[in-house]
Specification:
The chain is an alpha/beta fold. Among the domains are: 221-263, Oligo-1,6-glucosidase, domain 2, CATH 3.90.400; 541-619, Golgi alpha-mannosidase II (Immunoglobulin-like, Sandwich), CATH 2.60.40.1180. It contains 17 helices and 24 strands. It has an 8-stranded parallel β-sheet with strand order 12-11-10-3-2-1-14-13. A 5-stranded antiparallel β-sheet has the order 17-18-19-24-21. Strands 20-23-22 form a 3-stranded antiparallel β-sheet, with no helix packed on it. Helix 8 runs parallel beside helix 9 (313-326), helix 11 (358-369) packs antiparallel against helix 12 and helix 15 packs parallel to helix 16. The chain is globular and about 90 Å long.
């Protein structure tokens, strides 16, 4: 089959999206990062679990074929949104008996709750009210799984995320996937454009998740390869070990991502990805950044790149050039869970603008959450943060996504409950220790008030420190959960009734935990986001450590922009402390966030800060 890709880079005259609500500040010519990303407050959405806005598009059992677990269910239905997470429903018990499915993870992977794009559209006002101005969407492309990291295509939104799944699938069958000129716009695709448009209208940018290292076994390319073997036009797309060949006595085999056969890996060459998948990815990139040739203001505002470390640098360099030609203001962030020195090569201006800043999360956990025998001192905390700030070229530290929990790690509340189970920085060890399927001793109960207090302390740091804060959906209302798949529970909404959680992963029962919105925590996040957006020093201001007192377990830093000077005081001790700091030339203080007022006496400012709490004040 002949390839018809026409991938000429779009002209530099493309209209760059510049609506007033989203306009960038003047770019620093010494920086390569988009300036708007410094002021971003990110919100990560896992679409299948965020909001079911359209009950008519809910997936059927046929729509999940090809996803793990591969064993077909004897019964199946969309799972009730407000159910007890570990409680098996009647259809799950039927599968348990018929297929001898004893592992709770099997049932959790098979569940679908019906989240869709309409649900996100319906909740844009919620996000705007919270103060969010940037959304990172986990994969939305066609896929049979709940997570959609096993894409069937990159040029279509999953039909079950749109209003007409059956019609969309019929329309998609009319295409030649190798020829972008034949690609259609489905109802789900159109709804994605509507979501982007409505988000932009509210001053919210959106980036998509790009999973360019592998596809799923349902993909058009892999399906054709499986059928036609060495005669397939996709024979050079994947890392094939052997084809079906009776003469040679070989069976079809291929490389799966980290050995996972449901995720066949693309073949790589010296430049990164092989020609076929590379050209397809380039075409899909253009499609979503400049849909229908309407201009980049109608497209997504950038990409988050999954397992970016699994693809050669050459591909990312070429791909960045394409992206920036379409929209010079696009933001590119990568998943690179690695040591700082191994992250650095990706952030030199020719690949990514930022990263999901797990190293920030690791460092914060070691200072704020770890038990004493695993904790670092205030001085060590200061040193580790300084290392991360100096790691990148100018501007990058301001646009990295400062997160804690995500779809790939336990939620912050559950991390705090289980602090000490392992050190977060020891990624592989911690990843296993925080999964209930591997560690039955992991505590799945609801965080207590003392745990929520620690989350609040982290939130102050996250919203005032250098870098763009990113909230994982539901953390702001107190959701909790162990690592994947428990970190992907359905979002809490005030119009849905939630059963108490009384079941443990093994099916036994425990003391009930009420499942409801923590409005106090939500209001705190809203207050801190507003504080960050009101005081530019907290987003684009310079940084200076004022005090790193290891003996008192106190850490104080300054953010300054023009005439605005803001100090952030973190009392990490287990007792209330009156913290006194010399202020030099300043003679006035305004308390911005604290349970007590900061006061000036002579050449010093003093403030009472409760145990495991923080204060923020402005000096003039």
């Amino acid at each position: 089959m002949k390839r018809f890709f026409q991938l000429g880079l779009l002209a530099a005259s493309i209209n760059v999206y510049a609506a007033t609500a989203l306009s960038s500040t003047s770019a620093d010519t010494a920086e390569f990062v988009p300036q708007w990303a410094k002021k971003a407050v990110w919100y990560q959405i896992f679409p299948e679990r965020f909001r079911n806005g359209d009950l008519t598009n809910d997936p059927t059992v046929d729509d999940i074929k090809g996803a793990d677990p591969r064993q077909p269910p004897v019964q199946w239905r969309v799972h009730p949104w407000g159910s007890d997470w570990y409680e098996l429903q009647d259809y799950e018990r039927a599968n348990q008996q018929a297929n001898n499915e004893t592992a709770i993870s099997t049932h959790l992977l098979r569940r679908r709750y019906g989240g869709d794009l309409q649900g996100i559209i319906d909740k844009l006002d919620y996000l705007a009210d919270l103060g969010i101005n940037a959304i990172y969407l986990n994969p939305v492309f066609d896929s049979p799984s709940l997570h959609k990291y096993d894409a069937a295509s990159y040029h279509h939104i999953d039909p079950n995320f749109g209003p007409d799944p059956q019609g969309d699938r019929a329309l998609m069958m009319t295409e030649n996937p190798l020829d972008p000129n034949t690609w259609v716009w489905t109802k789900a695709d159109e709804l994605a454009i509507e979501l982007i448009h409505k988000a932009h209208h509210k001053g919210i940018r959106i980036i998509f998740d790009g999973v360019f290292n592998h596809m799923g076994i349902n993909s058009f390319a892999f399906q054709d390869l499986t059928k036609n073997q060495a005669q397939s036009p996709y024979k050079d797309w994947f890392s094939v070990i052997s084809f079906d060949d009776q003469k040679r006595g070989t069976k079809f085999d291929y490389e799966g991502w980290f050995g996972v056969k449901s995720l066949p890996e693309f073949k790589e060459d010296q430049q990164g990805l092989a020609k076929g998948p590379k050209e397809y990815i380039f075409a899909a990139t253009q499609r979503w950044m400049n849909p229908k040739g309407m201009g980049s203001e109608y497209g997504i505002d950038g990409w988050r790149l999954d397992v970016a470390y699994c693809i050669g640098h050459g591909f990312w360099k070429e791909w960045r050039s394409l992206v920036k030609a379409i929209n010079p203001e696009a933001y590119l962030t990568a998943e690179i869970v690695d040591t700082p020195e191994n992250v650095k090569p990706y952030m030199q201006g020719d690949e990514f603008d930022g990263e999901m800043n797990y190293n920030f999360a690791f460092t914060a956990a070691e200072f704020l959450f770890n038990p004493p025998h695993m904790a670092i001192t205030a001085a060590e905390f200061d040193s580790k943060l300084a290392e991360l700030r100096s790691l990148y070229p100018k501007g990058v530290a301001y646009v990295v996504q400062n997160l804690f929990g995500s779809h790939d790690s336990n939620r912050i509340g559950s991390h705090i409950v289980n602090r000490g189970v392992a050190n977060f920085r020891d990624w592989q060890k911690y990843f296993s220790a925080s999964q209930v399927a591997i560690n039955p001793a992991y505590d799945v109960s609801k965080p207590k008030a003392k745990d929520i207090q620690l989350q609040k302390l982290f939130a102050v740091l996250q919203m005032t420190y250098v870098g763009a804060p990113m909230i994982y959906y539901g953390d702001e209302v107190g959701m909790w959960g162990a690592n994947d798949p428990d970190t992907r529970k359905p979002m809490l909404w005030n119009d849905i009734e939630y059963k108490q959680e009384i079941h443990d992963p093994d099916g036994s029962q425990r003391k009930p935990d009420s499942v409801s919105i923590n409005y106090q925590l939500k209001n705190l996040y809203k207050q801190l986001i507003a504080l960050r957006k009101t005081h530019q020093a907290l987003s684009i201001g310079s940084y200076k450590t004022i005090q790193a007192d290891s003996a008192a377990n106190v850490f104080v830093f300054q953010r300054q922009y023009k005439d605005e000077t803001v100090w952030v005081v973190i009392n990490n001790a287990q007792k209330q402390q009156n913290i006194t700091l010399p202020i030099g030339k300043f003679n006035a203080v305004t308390t911005l966030f604290s349970q007590s007022k900061a006061v000036i006496a002579g050449q010093a400012v003093s403030i009472n800060v409760p145990a495991k709490s923080a204060a923020v004040f402005q000096l003039n």
